Amino acid sequence: MDNSAIPQNSLVSVQNLSFSRGNKKIFDDISLEFERGKITAIMGPSGTGKTTLLKLIGGQLFPAQGTITVDGNNVHRLRRTELYNLRKRMGMLFQSGALLTDMSVFDNVAFPLREHTHLPESMIRTLVLMKLQAVGLRGARKLMPNELSGGMARRIALARAIALDPMMIMYDEPFTGQDPISKGALVHLIKSLNTILGLTSIVVSHDVHETAAIADYIYVISEGKVVGQGTPKEIEQSESEWVQQFMTGAADGPAHFHYPAKDYVDDLLSTGKRY
Amino acid sequence: MRLLPCTLNLKLMTEFLQQLGQNTRTSFTKLGRGSFFLLQTLSGTLSVLIRPRLLLNQMYSVGVLSFLIITISGLFVGMVLGLQGYYVLSDFGAEETLGVMVAASLVRELGPVVSALLFAGRAGSALTAEIGLMKATEQLSGMEMMAVDPIKRIITPRFLAGFLSMPLLAALFSAIGVIGGQMVGSGLLGVDDGAYWSQMQANMDFRDDILNGVIKSIVFGFVTSWIALFEGYDAIPTSEGVSRATTRTVVNSAFSILGLDFILTVFMFGDN
Q1: How sure is the predictor about A197, in pLDDT bands with cuts at 50, 70 and 90?
Q2: Disulfide engineering: B147 pairs with which of A79, A87, A196, B129, CB 3.0-4.6 Å?
Q3: Is residue B71 part of a domain?
Q4: Which residues in chain A have their CB less than 8 angstroms from residue B142's CB?
């Protein structure tokens, strides 16, 4: 495999990636670099396949074209056991938290440790309590997932994602549907975990302010293409109309308010059709 | 104008063939996915046997929790068999053979079939809904990202639990049914108690009757667990998708149980 095109310092490298679902092209020949130790954000409107990108990086989906390299490994060329070994070093925070609903908070965080290590229970307890302390929920360890608020569930899921001390974490829409306090807590957590644990973070989000506050580098994606990239400052000053519309949240602009349709007047006057 | 009905027919015909072809293809693809799923499930057997705790937990929720419905249904089926059998047999003065009739019907047919149908309704639907919801809430995908194979960790223990519980539940069903038949036959209708048991003992064969019944219930347990888990795993991850999958589990399990029962009966009892 030719690694020469990958910059030295990048942990995850996406090159010339194309992916479609049915007839819809989700990614059309995009290339992204995620630097070690940095927080890189992928932004873009809903439905641009941001979650799909994380699943591609995690090897859950296969691209139609292009390569994804994580720490020097071509994710989609790995054997199953190699892929699983790589995944142990990748944490992922799902939008819903994806906590196992039949286990308590403690058991959820202990789950990866129990599955992948042969540590004694006393050591697992210490580790779990440390991870829970890091997200501020050590006191909630006896609760069941259905007793948690959305923000708490996401923090528990974060504690679980860092249980095996991964080299990177992928956050899928960490701020969506959170109240301002939870959002603040998550922003703080993502930033501090990244610094303290020396992680590489990939944040997929459409929450402009929260993401811009913590990201070191931002890619803005729309309709399968990268429409803007740079540091948060550069993005804010971007001259691309599209990026401006997204950052300021204008209803109409290059991204249209209306779903493509035929002429409004014609549509209203064409009677006799059901739809 | 005269050509019109002909072209219309042709169009209908093409549409019909297209539909038929498409349906056949969808069914076969699903069958293929199902078989692949089964292979993956079976390949996890060893890793489950190393951690018997996973299996025991599932045996509890799939098997032990089905105890009540199986016991009560078994008792009633046995009692009805006692009544109906007595009415028919007493016409011929053969009410002493009531024990044979009750035991043979239960061990050969009703035990495996009815308990499998109940099992599909009680445990199969629960399995489908559980797996379907785990998929819908990204728990399966989350597990995959934690480098834990959801098939080995979640599906295989449930499959083995269903497969092992079924013969035990069927045996329980038949045993309680025989007692139910005895309660009605000798307790209520006055068949001689000794005749009930001794006729049963003399005329029931271990290999022909009991073993064949056990084989049937093993097959039903295998098929029902497979269908239930696959439907859950293959469900469209929405509330509507999961509800449809649950319905399909019960319907397809019932069809498979009854169809397979006929085939198995032909092979087991066809030559005498």
Answers
A1: confident
A2: A87
A3: yes
A4: 92, 94, 98-100, 157
What confidence tens digit (pLDDT) does each residue in A47-96 have?
Answer: 778 888 888 998 888 888 888 988 888 888 888 888 998 998 888 888 88
Total domains in the fold of chain B? 1
Between CA B134 and CA A232 the distance in angstroms is 37
Answer yes or no: is the ipTM higher than 0.85. no
Q: What is the 3-state secondary structure (H, E, C) of B205-225?
A: CHHHHHHHHHHHHHHHHHHHH
Is the CB of B145 less than 8 angstroms away from the CB of A84? no
Tell me whether residue B116 is in a domain.
yes
> pTM (2 decimals)?
0.83
Confirm if B187 and B115 have CB atoms less than 8 A apart: no
User: Residue B176 is part of which domain span?
Assistant: 53-269
Q: Tell me, what's the pLDDT at A7?
A: 64
Query: In this structure, is residue B5 part of a structural domain?
Result: no
Cβ-count burial A181-211 (b if 16+ within 10 Å, e if not)? ebbebbbebbeebbeeeebbbbbbbbbbebb
* Chain A residue numbers touching B138 (CB-CB < 8 A): 94-96, 98
